[in-house]
Amino acid sequence: MKIDRLIGIITTLQQKKCVTAPYLAEKFEVSRRTINRDIEDICKAGIPIVTSRGVGGGISIMPGFALDTTVFTEQELANIFTGLKTLDSISNSETAEKLAQKIGASSAIKLADNMIIDLSSFYKDDLADKIDAIKQAIKESRCISFHYCYNKGEADKKIEPYLIVFKWSDWYVFGFCKERLDFRMYKLRRLWNLKITDEKFAIRDVPEEKKQFGSHMTDDYIVSAVYEPSVKYRLVEEYGSNCFTEQDDGKLYTEWGFTTQQGAIEWFLSFGNKVKILAPAEMVVLMKSTLESIKNLYE
Fold first, then answer.
1. In this structure, what is the dihedral angle of CA atoms 124, 133, 79, 20, given to the nearest 10 degrees?
2. Could you identify which of 19, 34, 36, 133 might form a hypothetical disulfide with 30, taking C-beta atoms 3.0 to 4.6 angstroms apart as the criterion?
3. Would you say 95 and 87 are in contact if contact means Cβ atoms under 8 Å apart?
4. Whole-number Å distance between alpha carbons of 161 and 142
5. Pick the CATH number of 124-211 from 3.40.1350, 2.30.30, 2.40.30, 1.10.10
6. Residues 192/130, Cβ–Cβ less than 8 Å
7. Is the pTM of this model over 0.85?
């Protein structure tokens, strides 16, 4: 992208003080004419560039112009590279490394190595292909189709993709469902046979309330329970160190809100015999009936 190249040129001039047009053309893999236009654009942006001929001549930023030594500090560049490397974890490209080579910021990318953020989960190869395809479809305003598996069963879907969303520790595609005639979120792990169709779509205005992902989910179904001390780490991991009250017998008392009864049951079942539901009474009954149905599977 041109903006990346302009930033790269400015950074190179700040680091090397003076370079030649052929050097910049080779570094950024463009023609000398393109470099000349870029220099004009940089001047128009308010950064005075001067050129000099002869031995030792070249392109440089006017002496005395205050630009804080570099356009970006090394730490600022490191933060940029950390973000790019994070996106590279769910992509088939190596954007951070390529940009570092272009602008000669190897020391900054070494600083970025101090932090690793891997968003790829356990299915990176499949995820990267899906995200790349969705990004292409969004760019070209083309519908995507896929097979989707969810709690209501399985179905073939076709949507107008608008956003790729990382939320609730998972990846989703947000788009306009052609069948429901409304905006929906689809978890990428639950879909397969993803294809970019030939069908183009006109970009719609997305209502702001539709972008408030999860706003319809409220944790107002209150359940109290006691947990064995051995699962304390899970409670802290999920809700923080102040999420429970330690009783005299060492057990951990909680009173939390859940979105649904079923969601609460699934949570408590994951603890086996390390938790006991106290209230409300309907949840105790529901847990008993759930355990009884599980027991019947093995009889």
1. 120
2. 34
3. yes
4. 8
5. 2.30.30
6. no
7. no
